[in-house]
Structures are given as C-alpha cells and as structure tokens.
Design a protein that fits this description.
This protein is an all-alpha fold. It has helices spanning 17-34, 45-65, 76-90, 98-102, 105-121, 125-149, 168-188, 194-207, 211-227, 234-254, 256-274, 281-299, 310-314, 327-359, 363-378, 388-413, and strands at residues 2-5, 8-11. A two-stranded antiparallel sheet has the order 1-2.
C-alpha cells in the first residue's frame, strides 16, 4: 500500500520476500508498458525480463497455494481473449495482407499471458487494493521520468510524454486513468492524501495536450461523484465537482500558458464541428478513416478483410498507410460483424455485472463501471484490442467483479 511518512512516499506490501519480488516485477512490467517504450520491438529487454519474472513468480505463488491440488482454473476473461485471438489467427485465411495480420498477434499472446497471471495474482480485496496502488506508483514513476527527461522549456510544447517512447495520447490516457483511480481512493474511500496525486496527475494530463485524455479525466471525476449517491452531502459534492470542472476549462481557455498547451487544440476541435471541417487536420483525417472503414465493412460485413488490414487497404485510396484510430472501425473492417461480437460481448458482460453491483452499493463497482463506460467512449478514437495497459485495466475490472460477487454471496449466506 502507498504510505506518506515524514514527507516520503513508501510502497508497503506487507508480504514475504517472494511476494514482495512478485509485486516489484509487476510494478516494473507496468512501468515498461507505460514509460519505457523507446526500445525497438524485440530489443526491449527490460520488458521481457519483467514479463518472465512476473509470470514465473506468479505461477510459483499459485502452485504454493494449491495445497497439493492439481486443478487450474481458467476464468471467463481468459476464455474470451483466447477465442478472440484464435479468430484473429483464423483471419489469415482471408487476409488482404498476410504479414499485417501476423504483426499484432505476438503482442496479443503476451497480453493473454499477462492478464491470466494478474487473475492469479489478485485473489482477494487486499491484492486488489495493492494493484491499484501499484498503478498509482507507476504513474508517479512515469511523471518523474517525463519531467526529468524533458526540458522545462518544452513542457508546454504539446508533446510532453513523447520521451517515454509512446505517443502522447497513450501517455495522457494512462495518466487520466490514474487521475480517476487516485480520486476514487481519495473521494470514495476517504483517503484524502491520494487527492494530491489526483491534482498532480491532472496537471500532467493537461501538459500532454491530449484532448481525449483531458475529457477522460474530467468525465471520470464527474462520474465518480455523480454515481456515488450514498456520499454524505451528495448535492454539495456534485455542485463542487461541476464547479471545479468549469473552472478548469475556464483556466484552459483564458490562461495563455494553458491555452497554448491544450486550449488551442480544444478550440480547433470546436471549430471543426461547428464551422470549418478543415480546421482540425487530425479530426479530418480520422473522419476520412471512418469513411474508408465503413466502406470496407459494407463490402465485407461478415468476416472483414483480415486482422490489422485497414492500413493496407487504405494505401489504395491514399498516400498514407495508418491504422483506423478507432477500435470499432478497425475491428469492423478487419474482422467484420463476427469479430465485433466476439470482442465486445465481454465489454457488455462487464457493463451489466458492474451496473448490478453499483446498484447494490458496492464501491469498487463505482470505479470500474466508470472505467468501462469511458473505454467504450475512448475506443471511438483509439485502437485498443492489442493495448497491454488497456487490457490490464480490463482484467482488473473483471477481478473487481469477481471479488464483489464473492463478497455479496458471503453477505447473503452469512
């Protein structure tokens, strides 16, 4: 657990040496997936080291807990993603570009292993809370790494976070998720020191100039407060969060430093939708991608043209060759209706389960119901089916569902 003492931030796990090393290996793996992305594919040795240590120690701990039992449980999450990968591999049979289809599959298999191990790692509420703290600590390490390695003069350049080796949108989105997690700890669990992280991470989100990350942060904070209907002084908290969101947006548009960082991009987006469809080249390009992807889907509505083949098809109509920047379009064009159903049924499963748990008043459901809703919106502007960090968060959401269900059954039977 994270602890402030004598002005020092400490990560305390309260576990034995193997458990502690397992925690550190997961932390290092999270840092590699979010911060250390500069190495060429296949040469990111720190990531592979963390991957194998985490997997090895997770299975060691699992075997130690088996008590001479030979049974291994495969949960519904693993079955879902395994079947989806199998279908993606099958799409090689009709792929427009064979090599393009092969490219993301190795990463997806790694995600399958990581998420399976996380299911083993999280066995109770204490494990769950530790994982949330590890995510926040990852955000601290990422922020420190970015600020140390970026000259102060470039903090408002609109590219803060590029030193991680990942694009600033990916960096901003992870930080936005950590904004929501730390706010959950501070506002819902009443651990007020975590609100310091919320403010610090919100600053980092703004400095990445990522519009979607800013929206995720604001919407996530609002949803935490609005959905927490049992909070004392509920109406006051709702009024305050909308007031804070309004003041933040006012500052972004009226403080020159903030306007140059992110306000300008928000203005161009507003102008794109209200006045001039050429005002924002990024949005214009994404709209073009949606048109091309829709055309592919209408021509191949059942099984698509093969996984990750949108960019190859796009090159026939344009001088550029990029992915769709939209998970729905990417999957619809590559895998058709079958692929969309095979992928998104699990999102629907989580949405329904978390909604039921939210209505029962289970607090962790509040956090992850908000997250699933935000991901559903986010994927209109981002491809995530092979995103390690997004799928890590999805499996943590699934484990929250399992823990909540187990607690509810105990209460019913108890």
């Amino acid at each position: 657990m994270l602890e402030f003492k004598n002005g020092i931030l400490k990560l305390k796990t309260g576990r034995g040496i193997i458990g502690f090393i397992n925690d550190l290996s997961l932390l290092l793996l999270l840092v590699c997936m979010t911060t250390l992305g500069g190495a060429d594919e296949g040469a990111n040795y720190v990531y592979y080291f963390a991957f194998f240590i985490f997997v090895f120690l997770t299975f060691v701990n699992m075997i130690a807990r088996q008590n001479n039992s030979n049974s291994f449980i495969i949960n519904i999450h693993t079955i879902w993603y395994l079947i989806f990968i199998a279908y993606c591999i099958t799409s090689l049979l009709w792929a427009f570009d064979f090599e393009a289809t092969i490219k993301p599959i190795e990463k997806m298999i790694q995600i399958l292993v990581i998420t399976y191990c996380i299911q083993i790692y999280i066995k109770n509420e204490s494990d769950f809370e530790r994982v949330l703290d590890l995510l926040i600590f990852t955000g601290v390490i990422m922020s420190a790494y970015i600020l140390i390695n970026t000259p102060v003069s470039e903090w408002s350049s609109g590219f803060l976070g590029s030193v991680t080796g990942y694009n600033t949108n990916s960096t901003g989105i992870f930080l936005a998720v950590i904004v929501v997690i730390s706010a959950y700890k501070g506002l819902v669990l009443n651990k007020k020191p975590y609100l310091i992280f919320t403010a610090a991470f919100m600053f980092m989100v703004i400095m990445t100039s990522s519009r979607k990350s800013l929206f995720i942060s604001i919407l996530g904070l609002i949803s935490l407060v609005v959905l927490n209907t049992k909070k004392k002084h509920y109406a006051l908290h709702v009024f305050l969060i909308f007031g804070i969101a309004g003041l933040l947006l006012f500052a972004i548009f009226n403080v020159p430093y903030l306007y140059n960082t992110v306000g300008f991009w928000l203005s161009s987006m507003a102008k794109f939708f209200t006045e001039d469809s050429t005002a924002d080249s990024s949005l214009a390009q994404r709209t073009f991608f949606i048109d091309i992807g829709s055309k592919i889907f209408l021509e191949h509505p059942v099984i698509g043209i093969g996984l990750n083949n949108f960019s190859a098809y796009l090159s026939q109509y344009s001088s550029i060759s990029l992915y769709a920047h939209n998970n729905y379009i990417e999957l619809a064009s590559g895998l058709g209706t079958v692929g969309l159903i095979m992928y998104y049924w699990f999102y629907l499963y989580l949405f329904v389960k978390l909604l039921k748990q939210l209505l029962r008043g289970q607090r962790t459901a509040l956090l992850f119901f908000s997250f699933i809703c935000l991901v559903i919106v986010l994927e209109y502007s981002m491809v995530t089916y092979y995103s390690s960090i997004i799928h890590t968060l999805i499996v943590i959401s699934y484990m929250a569902v399992c823990i909540n269900d187990a607690k509810y059954k105990e209460q019913i039977n108890g």
